[in-house]
């Protein structure tokens, strides 16, 4: 599951104070929040009772209202407004109250136990922890959405989804999270620049290390990454581990298997990253996501690793003639799965268990996943939607290169689950990834510390354990 | 008191007291109540676990680390802020040349006062965004850009500021950089506070001291400081509260809110992570309650230690 970051600097004073108050000396407002949460009666559904039909499989009542909350991050929120149009074309008498925010958890968590919104896009840095939501029974399983007929094509909703989307949204055997975006990760470069300089985009680490001196000679840093949010370098590190050591190792890591991090290939996968840092191939400075992306656009670095929301996030400052191109993470000669691509559905919608109009929420999801809605999504965000064929009619180098990458990829998609399963391991892996990329840890030390962190979670009886099967 | 007066007073007090009970005292009690449960924060089911959460606090390594970071701020924030504020207030009020007009501040002191007080009128977010630019970790940062231009810092090795966990005097560098912001933004207010206190000290005491041959150094330590004891003590308590919080700065300025790699973790950041990321509201409430108790004890001890005879003038 992926999360697009919010842009920094729009932390409002109100939110900040609310959080400071919630966490600091003033237990008061926090406690007020807490008190608002407990001891409520389950609410009655306001939306059920309509007649079920192919065009209304959940039986939404005409004249009811549905409250939808959109995460307004790297993808913006215009696409969601288009979905509202799609939805109202079929259901003109159902009112859609749509709002967008970057502070999903701050605004939605306090309402979860009493009067939640009907449909919440749980994404961004301030998202509600998914495992906690599921363990606490706060969100609704949506398996009936998968078997419902598709909005504007043949078959069921499940038939329209790209591979991995159902699996990404499933936990404990039930489908909870509807991811609407499809993200591909990798190393980005400016194809126009590479053409001009006569550089060949590398596919292996060896090719990269051979090219690096030439890039340096032009006064550019070969590589840059977000050095503030640890989940950025973690994508790259985990992709390397999958490619070099194979899928089973990552599955074992996700399942907290003993000595999973010490398996064959993990060290070999991380050593090129250690070398990248040691050889000073990184752009100096500890830049955050937008700063590093801008540095890359400004030509200060040749490669940046990030996902396909990049184009939309930086749309305002892309220089003319810049050809944003995505290439796969680099592999080694004898890797186990060098062709597997790091791609996943992301930007997950959830339906709170206590939502008053769950029927309309599911119906709205059907509209989001429709052919018309998905096409608008790809067109507006320059990212793929999680449905098949969303990007077929969009002309764009970034989207086209992502499409190509997907088509040439291996049989499996690289995916990592432990950060969704365990908040502690999420935090530790982010911290340690940045430490490795800052050169304060060697690859071997990184592995030791990750193993220790995983063991600690495995031993902690207060943490509910999850299992990954596929 | 006559009956009617009592009714009058009660009538006025009832509403505020009721509001206070409902919105301050009751939530406090609730937080304390939740701290005895394993509530997750997203549902209305919870299990009573007694003092388990508090027992856990004492064996939690991260909390211990955060605690010592808070202690660092608890010592340094009041110390440096008060020292700087006193120094500025002294210069602005009595540090200047003495002449026929009597004791006065340094030349242009009224302008300096405005400048030093300025951070106080800025919102916290503005301060944070501003310092993000000042502390930016490449050549576009205010400090780094300047130092790189004059050659004091290499372009390949800029200062990492709040992304730097390397110890300086045994304390992670990131904490020192945060301290600088806290002192900068706090000193102005306490300068004004101390200025007001200094102005209430009669000028003749200074004149007498100067006649007796006391220089600036002696006037400050023998006259000003003892007479400001009360004000400084109060300032110390206030700054102690601020030092125990520090959440906003850590939240906005440090990588992964308490990083890098836990180097700037404080009580409030661990609490926030435990409640909102790990979904352990019960345990987080226990942290909040522990912090509240610690704060109250500290304030009580502080006021008791510094209590002395009041000097009237």
UniProtKB/TrEMBL annotation, chain A:
Main subcellular location of this protein, as a coarse class: other
Keyword entries, A-Z: Signal, Transport
Gene3D superfamilies: Periplasmic binding protein-like II
Segments passing through the bilayer: none
This protein's GO CC annotations: cell envelope
Source taxon at top rank: Bacteria
Localization annotation: Cell envelope
Keyword Signal attached: yes
Pfam families linked: SBP_bac_1 (PF01547)
InterPro entries: Bact_solute-bd_prot1 (IPR050490), Chitin_NgcE (IPR022386), SBP (IPR006059), TAT_signal (IPR006311)
Membership in a protein family: Belongs to the bacterial solute-binding protein 1 family.
UniProt-recorded name of the protein: Carbohydrate ABC transporter, N-acetylglucosamine/diacetylchitobiose-binding protein
Taxonomic lineage: Bacteria, Bacillati, Actinomycetota, Actinomycetes, Micromonosporales
């Amino acid at each position: 599951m992926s999360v697009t970051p919010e842009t920094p600097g729009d932390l409002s004073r109100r939110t900040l104070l609310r959080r400071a108050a919630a966490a600091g000396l003033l237990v008061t407002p926090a406690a007020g929040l807490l008190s608002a949460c407990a001891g409520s009666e389950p609410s009655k559904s306001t939306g059920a009772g309509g007649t079920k039909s192919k065009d209304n499989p959940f039986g939404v009542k005409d004249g009811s209202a549905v409250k939808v909350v959109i995460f307004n991050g790297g993808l913006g929120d215009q696409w969601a407004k288009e979905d509202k149009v799609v939805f109202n074309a079929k259901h003109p008498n159902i009112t859609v109250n749509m709002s967008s925010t970057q502070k999903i958890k701050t605004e939605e968590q306090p309402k979860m136990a009493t009067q939640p919104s009907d449909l919440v896009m749980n994404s961004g840095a301030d998202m509600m922890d998914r495992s906690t939501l599921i363990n606490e029974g706060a969100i609704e399983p949506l398996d009936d959405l998968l078997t419902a007929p598709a909005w504007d094509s043949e078959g069921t909703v499940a038939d329209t989804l790209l591979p991995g989307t159902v699996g990404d949204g499933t936990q404990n055997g039930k489908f909870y999270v509807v991811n609407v975006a499809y993200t591909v990760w990798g190393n980005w470069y400016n194809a126009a620049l590479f053409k001009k300089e006569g550089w060949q985009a590398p596919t292996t680490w060896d090719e990269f290390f051979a090219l690096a001196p030439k890039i340096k000679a032009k006064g550019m840093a070969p590589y840059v990454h977000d050095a503030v949010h640890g989940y950025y370098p973690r994508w790259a590190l985990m992709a390397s581990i999958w490619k070099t050591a194979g899928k089973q190792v990552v599955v074992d890591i996700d399942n907290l298997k003993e000595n999973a991090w010490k398996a064959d290939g993990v060290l070999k996968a991380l050593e090129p990253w250690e070398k990248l840092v040691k050889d000073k191939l990184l752009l100096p400075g500890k830049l955050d996501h937008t700063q590093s992306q801008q540095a890359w656009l400004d030509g200060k670095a040749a490669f940046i690793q990030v996902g396909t929301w990049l184009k939309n996030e930086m749309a305002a400052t892309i220089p003319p003639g810049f050809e944003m191109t995505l290439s796969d993470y680099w592999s080694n000669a004898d890797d186990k799965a060098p062709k597997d691509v790091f791609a996943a559905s992301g930007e997950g919608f959830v339906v709170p268990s206590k939502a008053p109009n769950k029927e309309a929420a599911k119906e709205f999801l059907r509209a989001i996943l429709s052919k018309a809605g998905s096409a608008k999504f790809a067109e507006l965000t320059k990212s793929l939607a999680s449905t098949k064929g969303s990007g077929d009619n969009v002309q764009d180098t970034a989207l086209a290169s992502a499409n190509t990458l997907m088509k040439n990829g291996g049989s499996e998609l690289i995916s990592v689950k432990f950060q969704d399963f365990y908040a502690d391991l999420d935090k530790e892996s982010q911290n340690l990834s940045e430490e490795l990329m800052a050169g304060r840890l060697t690859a071997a030390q990184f592995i030791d510390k990750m193993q220790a962190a995983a063991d600690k979670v495995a031993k902690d009886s207060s943490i509910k354990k999850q299992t990954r099967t596929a | 008191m006559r009956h009617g007066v009592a009714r009058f007073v009660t009538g006025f007090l009832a509403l505020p007291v009721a509001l206070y009970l409902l919105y301050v005292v009751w939530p406090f009690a609730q937080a304390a109540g939740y701290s005895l449960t394993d509530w997750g924060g997203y549902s209305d089911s919870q299990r009573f676990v007694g003092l388990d959460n508090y027992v856990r606090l004492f064996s939690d390594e991260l909390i211990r680390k955060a605690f010592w970071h808070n202690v660092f701020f608890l010592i340094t924030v009041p110390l440096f802020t008060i020292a700087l504020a006193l120094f500025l207030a002294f210069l602005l009020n009595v540090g200047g040349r003495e002449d026929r007009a009597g004791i006065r501040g340094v030349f242009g002191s009224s302008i300096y006062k405005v400048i030093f007080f300025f951070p106080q009128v800025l919102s916290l977010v503005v301060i944070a965004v501003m310092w993000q630019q000042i502390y930016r970790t490449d050549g576009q940062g205010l400090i780094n850009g300047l130092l790189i231009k004059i050659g004091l810092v290499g372009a390949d090795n800029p200062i990492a500021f709040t992304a730097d966990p390397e110890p300086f005097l045994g304390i992670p560098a990131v904490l020192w950089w945060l301290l600088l912001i806290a002192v900068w933004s706090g000193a102005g207010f306490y300068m004004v506070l101390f200025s007001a206190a200094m102005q209430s000290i009669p000028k003749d005491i200074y004149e007498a001291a100067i006649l007796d041959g006391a220089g600036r150094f002696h006037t400050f330590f023998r006259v000003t400081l003892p007479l400001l004891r009360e004000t400084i003590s109060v300032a110390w308590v206030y700054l102690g509260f601020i030092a125990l919080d520090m959440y906003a700065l850590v939240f906005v300025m440090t990588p992964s809110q308490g990083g890098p790699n836990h180097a700037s973790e404080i009580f409030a950041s661990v609490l926030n992570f435990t409640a909102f990321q790990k979904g352990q509201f019960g345990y987080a409430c226990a942290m909040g309650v522990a912090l509240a108790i610690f704060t109250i004890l500290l304030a009580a001890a502080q006021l008791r230690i510094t209590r002395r005879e009041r000097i009237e003038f």
